[in-house]
Amino acid sequence: MVRAVVQRVYNAQVSVDGIVTGRIEKGLLVYLGVAEGDTGADAGYLADKVCSMRICDDTDGKMNLSVQDTGGSVLVVSQFTLLADARTGRRPSYSGAAKPVLAKKLYEDFIEDIRSHGLHCESGVFQAQMAVQYTNDGPVTILLDSRKLF
To answer: Is pTM beyond 0.85 here?
Structure first.
């Protein structure tokens, strides 16, 4: 299952070796993890959900608007650790995470799917050690899963 942590932010940026690779103002920060066996349909479903999910405030301060409605941006950061299984022992297992070739393809597909909705989308660098800085808005944090486990 493609898994995501979606955070509503005032701003966010991701850097690799001190160089900013992606930066947005108001919008959504999405950490994205890909599981073994995931498909383009999983990535597409989650991208559509991220774009249309009503978690942005309207003029009355109620979460009635999507990032599309507000004209916000999306910053996507790959994070295989979202697939960690920490139910036993002290060291999480990442055996459920997709192999890098599949994970990179679906990560890139997800970004393109976001852009196909007309949104400005920036990203981190796949498999890089990244530093992420952001100012959470709300805070609003939503967990998503393409197989609807939560």
So the answer is: yes
